[in-house]
Amino acid sequence: MRSVRARAALGATLVVAVALTAAGLAVLLVLRGNLTDRAGLEAEVAAREVAGQLALDVPYAGLDLGDEEVHPVQVTDEAGRVVAVSKDLEAVSGTGVTRVVPVPSAAAPSAGDDDDDGGDDDGNDPARREVSSDTPDFTNGTATVDGERADYRFAAVEVTTSRDVTLTVHAGAPLAAEQEAVSTVRTSMLTGLPVLLLVVAGVTWLVTRRALRPVEGIRRELAAITASEDLGRRVPEPDSRDEVARLARTTNETLTVLEASVDRQRRFVADASHELRSPIASLRTQLEVGEAHPELLDVPGAVADTVRLQALAADLLLLARLDAGERPGRTAVDLGTLVREEVSRRAADRIGPAVSVRDPDALEVTGSRAQLARVLGNLLDNAERHAVRSVAVSVRADRGDVVVEVTDDGAGVPEPERDRIFERFVRLDDARSRDDGGAGLGLAIARDVASRHGGTLTAGAARDGGARFTLRLPGGAATDPGRQARNG
User: Fold this and answer.
1) Do 14 and 144 belong to one domain?
2) pTM of the model
3) What is the CATH number of the domain that holds 380?
4) CATH code of the domain covering residue 249
5) Could you tell me if 155 and 137 are in contact, meaning their C-beta atoms sit under 8 angstroms apart?
6) Region for 106 from its dihedrals, namely left if φ exceeds 0, alpha if ψ lies in -120 to 50, beta otherwise
7) What is the extent of the structural domain holding 300?
8) How big is the chain by its Cα radius of gyration, in Å?
9) What is the mean pLDDT of residues 239-258?
């Protein structure tokens, strides 16, 4: 069953069916118990009326047994002999004695006979007459009265006469009303349950269909977006505030992010193609000229274009790995040592602005040494490219983090552009006029690597002018707590 509506309707119907069945059984049991208790009470009243007569030494033949058809009565003695029965009682079961004919030898004497022990003349000694006050015993059985057989609830009441004879009075009350009521309720339930279940199934189907209608609209629109590849389209958002509305909003947010990602990827490919075209065209031109006129071959220029092409390819490869979700290593890296190594290498390889290093103590972070070296290298490259005379690098601890600041004395970065410069292939030619070698990928790579190491990279203004780039990374276990406290 693939339809959500069908599954919901079936599930709701099954739950209601189980609940109604359990409730119906409970109602039937309670109803049967109440009606049975009522019949038992009637039987007890009838039995105590007869027992009261016996306690007054009414002769068996003179007992008023009431309406025999309604309350059949059977009286037995201690030996289980029947001493009195209702007039039209033809058969009985459930009382323990099936005999319905009194035993002649068990007939009681007439009232007023003298007791054998010479007691009170009128035989009315209260201490020797007693109707049991205990809760009577109840049983279910049948009785045939005047040819009609029916089910009865019997109550057994004990009584002691003045002659110290203990008798048991069995009186019955018909269970026909109980059986009829239970049968009527059961029939009504069996008749109404299927109808009610059909109503529940139909209502659940309609409600589920109405609730899922917006989902079907979302599905159709997503199918259309997939077929057209138009990420600018959006799914309809219902006016309700339920889960379906939140699903539609989340889907549109996902489409927005996906559209931005695809646009960014397209721009990246276009910008990369543009950046690669220039050094490749230049290198090809020089090689073609060198082939035709070897004496005019510009070997240093060709080498420079090759180096630029190699650096650009390396940047693109690193960005591709980062976009693919490559995780940094978990090596402990001493940023102070790494900064000194980068600055020393540049001092030996390049003539440019002086680079000063402040306070590069042993402050460790966890990550990839190669990627962090790339971040520092890109920041130093950017600073040297735009500095007038000097570049300064500082390393310090700050509230459990390790902070690296790279500043230059150049023109600085305009405040509105301080976030934009971290986008790929972005170069601010007006503000950073001496940008003659970068492709606009260095700062984008640096921020991406910092983010994947759990840190941040921001741009700001240096105290004495120029640009300040602040790299903040979570400190490792070796970061000096005392130094953190002093700097915090």
Assistant:
1) yes
2) 0.50
3) 3.30.565.10
4) 1.10.287
5) yes
6) alpha
7) 243-323
8) 52
9) 87
